Amino acid sequence: MSLAISALRGFSNGHQFAMSKTKEDEVRQGGNHFLASLPQITQIAAVSNVLYDNAIAPHIKTACKVVTYLSIPLCPLLGVIKGGTYKTFATTINNFRFELPEKLGNKTFPILPFKLPENLGNKTVTVLSYISAHLGDIAVIAIAIESIALVVIGNYAYGISMLAVIGYEVLDNQLGIIPRKVSLFMEEYFPVISCVGLIISNTILFRALGVVSFLQKNVSFQCFLQKKVDLVARQFTEISTPSLQELDGPLYQNKNLTFDQINRILGSEDSEYELNPAHFSKNISLDSLPKNHNFNAYLTLFDSIEWSQKFNLLKAKVKDDDLFINSLLEDLDVQKDLIEKNIPKGEEAKTILKENIEYYVEMMANSNGLSKERYLESWARRQMEKLVSTLSGDARFKGSQRDASDAINYCAKILCYLLSTNKAENQIEFEDALLSLAVECGDYCARGVKRRSRQLLDGILVRDNLNLRDPIKKHELRVLQQLQNLRLNIMEQAYQSIIEVLKLHSSISEDVHSFDTYRSYLALGFLPMTHYERKRIGVSDVLMWESYFTIRESMTNDYLKGINDAIAELGNIHSSDYIRRIINGQKNLTTHQKDQILELYYGQWSPDETNHRFNRLMLVILGVLQQK
Question: Are residues 435 and 505 in the same domain?
């Protein structure tokens, strides 16, 4: 029994380390060194935990605790230095003041008892940046040595189980040898075994975390518990937004209305109807959309465009791409030019590069013996090659393989659309889609590719439903997608408002992982989430979600005000055809009743009023609106 417990502990510790290393690699791939430094804290804690569990000397146990606690401020600090945002960070910390309430004297005091130096020497920056970039690799070596040492001293179960998990992580995420389906399976069930290891650990804290984590793996129980917590919280607060129970309720569409019901809807006032909470959480089904997994066709499509004649388009796209800017910073000629102009490394150098992007692109092109047009074209194509390689399975996405699976699915649908569309008639859309996939997805993590490819697919669905034949379903899908895009835009505006209040640096606020942190609190109850995204939300997240209710309330009001304008953007011709088809398809109406309703559409009110009233009818049919 003791061997089994020891093996589970080793497995749990190794799994926590492996997951944090995977997360670091995923985030660092996008160039965000600050967020990449946060998983390093978990890695150091895992390395220290092995020593703590197996050491006898008290001073070693104390040292393990000290190292773990010191890593909490030091790892992010190293990440800030590596990311080139140290000066802004130091200024913010030095100027920050805690303010005591008036009852306690209304005094202020700094966050630190000393001031951080606002400038660091180039050698110091180089050394600390190197440590930040390679701390995860050092931790891998350290925990591997610990595992081998445990086997040597006779603690076989602990050492071998931990070494096996870390070895699997190297084979899976570092080398990409493990088949993706196996990786998906392990991603689902490894955390369950890890939770058991936490439950039988030495400390009460880890046991409590293990129990909570284990219960979170049961989606049905988790949703039930979240709804109960939500209802209890509402008894002690003034939350006016819909509850989780209302949001997760079934969505009923009213496809067959009576003559009286239709007339009542058309003749009512807006105040008599409200948004149906259930429609916020319902995903638009993409299962019927065709796919094409011959991802090499992306390269053929990319090569069919004369990118060398579209320098301004390429320049505008790469200007705000962190990977491209970082590649410029790594060039020796660019570094020499920055040194000659006395421009320090970091955020100031990136700003200079973006402001003078054409000058530095030409410098890079000359050093490679190319024109600036050909240089950008070849760089974008290399990015597309990387994307095709990961989509085809020749290389492995960094990050969650569930995110990778979604990204592959979305890209297959986009490819099918691009192959079927008329390039001459949709040239701008065609070029933008290919360039966005190459530059914004090419060498990014699974989560980043998933997010951007879904945005592209959402835009395509509004314009064209990928060859859907049923005109009624086609228009309904366009409307629902347009409304979802409207909610996404409103949510992104709310996110920007939060960023302005928190005064986060753009290197953090614009990262997909930062956005997804707030997305959980803003999207739940406003935008549909995938099963995997919903599964990752725990009880603690629900409590945090409650605190954002005023923001969601404002978002909902903006959404209600913008619905008619959003539908109008789709064009009145499509709406007119839809109304005619949906009325003629009503089984509860006689021919005379159908004619009466269509007469209302063609002459009872002004054009704007007519569209407004029949939009209400359509939204009631789709379940977006309901009578109060």
Answer: no
Residue 168, φ and ψ in degrees, nearest 5? -65, -40
Contact 514, 35 (CB under 8 A): yes
Residue 243 lies in a domain: no
Report CA-CA distances (Å) from 121 to 86, 129, 345. 12, 12, 10
Would you tell me how many other CB atoms lie within 10 Å of the CB of residue 498?
15
Q: Which two tokens stand for residue 254?
A: 């009213």
Shared domain check, 301 and 280: no
- Cα dist from 578 to 202, 265, 409, 460, 584, whole Å: 65, 17, 30, 20, 10
Tens of pLDDT along 149-160?
888 888 888 888
Give the pLDDT mean for 359-377.
84
Instruction: Domain count for the chain, please give it.
Output: 3
pLDDT for the residue 211: 61
Asked, for residue 47, whether it belongs to a domain, the answer is: yes
Instruction: Quote the CA–CA distance of 287 and 349 in Å, as a whole number.
Output: 46
CA angle at residue 433 from 428 to 437, to 5 degrees?
150
Of the candidates 505, 620, 483, the one whose C-alpha atom is nearest the C-alpha of residue 564 is: 483
Contact 460, 500 (CB under 8 A): no
Residue finishing a domain among 467, 494, 521: 467
Distance CA 55, CA 71 (A): 20
Phi and psi angles of residue 344, each rounded to the nearest 5 degrees, phi first: -70, 160
Residues 511-536: pLDDT tens digits? 555 566 666 777 788 888 877 777 77
Residues 455 and 561 in one domain: no
In a domain, 247, yes or no: no
User: Within this chain, do residues 139 and 154 fall inside the same structural domain, yes or no?
Assistant: yes
User: pTM for the whole thing?
Assistant: 0.70
Question: Which amino acid would we find at residue 197?
Answer: G
Structure tokens of 492? 């992104």
Query: Three-class SS of residue 97?
Result: strand
Contact 250, 622 (CB under 8 A): no
> What residues pair up with 627 in beta bridges, in sequence order?
273
Residue at 254 is within a domain: no
Residues 497 and 415 occupy one common structural domain: no
Most confident of 1-15, 110-124, 602-616: 602-616
- DSSP 8-state class, residue 153: T
210-252 confidence digits (pLDDT tens): 565 665 556 666 777 777 777 777 777 777 788 888 888 888 8
Closest CA to 460 of 420, 414, 405: 414
| Dihedral angle sign, alpha carbons of residues 435, 436, 440, 446 | negative
Residue 1 has pLDDT above 50, yes or no: no
| Residue percentage of the chain with pLDDT more than 90 | 7
Q: Which domain holds residue 38?
A: 2-216
